[in-house]
């Protein structure tokens, strides 16, 4: 798979274009704003966006959902527990940063273990990782995992928002992410990439 990353939106969340090298079809993960820029970059990559995926429902990860969906016709996917969050400026917290945004409703509701197929070469498995939000997910591909706001380079997601749980977050990371191979590349929702092996050894939040 081909992976491209851009910072988008007012909080600079990472948006990822995950593209099948054979067909050019692609999933766009967490379009947090700057929809025009994201569409232009996708066009430059000769990508056909066939899925929009939200790792969770906070406004800084969903703000361009509507613009991307309107331009591409791609279905919008999120975990079933985030369906009510993405459409509500109060629940997705965009109301409180001065930019209220209501996303279109999700077209497909995800649950743990679901698989999203893009083209012939991209297969993303849904890992339900609650803690930052109730319906937060990570997406596991071949040798990579997109972790949203669950796991960062040297840190973990905040748990002081509604629906957050520090104990659930650490449990999810230890049960779903740390068993992955050491060389699995971590593509987080903010900041630089990492690897599972690095985080297992060096992340202070994961020390036993």
From TrEMBL:
It comes from the Bacteria. GO terms for molecular function: hydrolase activity; metal ion binding. Coiled coil: none annotated. It holds the Pfam family Lactamase_B. Residues 12-190 form the Metallo-beta-lactamase domain. Its cofactor is Zn(2+). InterPro entries: MBL_Glyoxalase_II, Metallo-B-lactamas, RibonucZ/Hydroxyglut_hydro. Keywords: Hydrolase, Metal-binding, Zinc. SUPFAM superfamilies: Metallo-hydrolase/oxidoreductase (SSF56281). This is MBL fold metallo-hydrolase. The lineage of its organism: Bacteria, Bacillati, Bacillota, Clostridia, Eubacteriales.
């Amino acid at each position: 798979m081909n992976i491209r990353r851009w910072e988008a939106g007012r909080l600079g969340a990472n948006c990822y274009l995950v593209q099948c090298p054979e067909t050019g079809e692609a999933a766009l993960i967490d379009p947090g704003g700057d929809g025009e820029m994201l569409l232009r970059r996708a066009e430059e990559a000769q990508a056909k966006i066939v899925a929009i995926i939200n790792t969770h429902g906070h406004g800084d990860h969903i703000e361009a959902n509507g613009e991307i969906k309107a331009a591409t016709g791609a279905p919008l996917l999120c975990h079933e527990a985030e369906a009510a969050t993405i459409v509500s400026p109060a629940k997705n917290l965009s109301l409180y940063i001065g930019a209220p945004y209501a996303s279109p409703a999700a077209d497909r509701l995800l649950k743990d273990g679901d698989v999203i197929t893009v083209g012939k070469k991209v297969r993303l498995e849904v890992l339900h990782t609650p803690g930052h939000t109730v319906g937060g997910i990570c997406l596991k591909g071949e040798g990579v995992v997109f972790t949203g706001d669950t796991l960062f380079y040297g840190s973990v997601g905040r748990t002081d928002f509604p629906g957050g749980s520090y104990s659930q977050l650490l449990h999810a990371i230890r049960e779903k992410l740390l068993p992955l191979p050491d060389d699995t590349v971590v593509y987080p929702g903010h900041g630089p990439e990492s690897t599972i092996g690095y985080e297992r050894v060096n992340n202070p939040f994961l020390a036993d």
